[in-house]
Amino acid sequence: MPRSKESARANLENLYRIFTVPEAPDSTLGRIDQAISDNVTGFLQKHIVALENSITDIEKSFDDPKIPEEPTFVSDYTEFIKEKLVAQSVHTAAPGFIGHMTSALPYFMLPLSRIMIALNQNLVKVETSKAFTPMERQVLAMLHRLIYSESDAFYHRWIHDSRYALGAFCSGGTIANITALWAARNQLCSPSGNFRGITNEGFFRAMQHLGCQGLAVLVSRRRHYSLGKAADLLGIGRENLVLVETDDRNRINMAALREQCRRIQDKGIRPLSLIGIAGTTETGNVDPLEEMADLAEEIGCHFHVDAAWGGPTLFSEKYRSLLKGIERADSVTIDAHKQLYVPMGAGMVLFKDPAALSSIEHHAAYIIRHGSKDLGSHTLEGSRPGKAMLVHAGLSIIGRKGYELLIDQGIERARRFAEMVQEHPDFELVTAPELNILTYRYNPASVQEALAHADAETVREVNELLDKMTKRIQKRQREAGKTFVSRTSLTPERYRGQTIIVFRVVLANPLTTEDILASVLEEQCEWARHPEVSPLLDQLQEMTAAA
Ligand SMILES: *Cc1c(COP(=O)(O)O)cnc(C)c1O
Question: Is 224 a pocket residue for ligand 1 (Cβ < 6 Å)?
Answer without folding.
Answer: yes
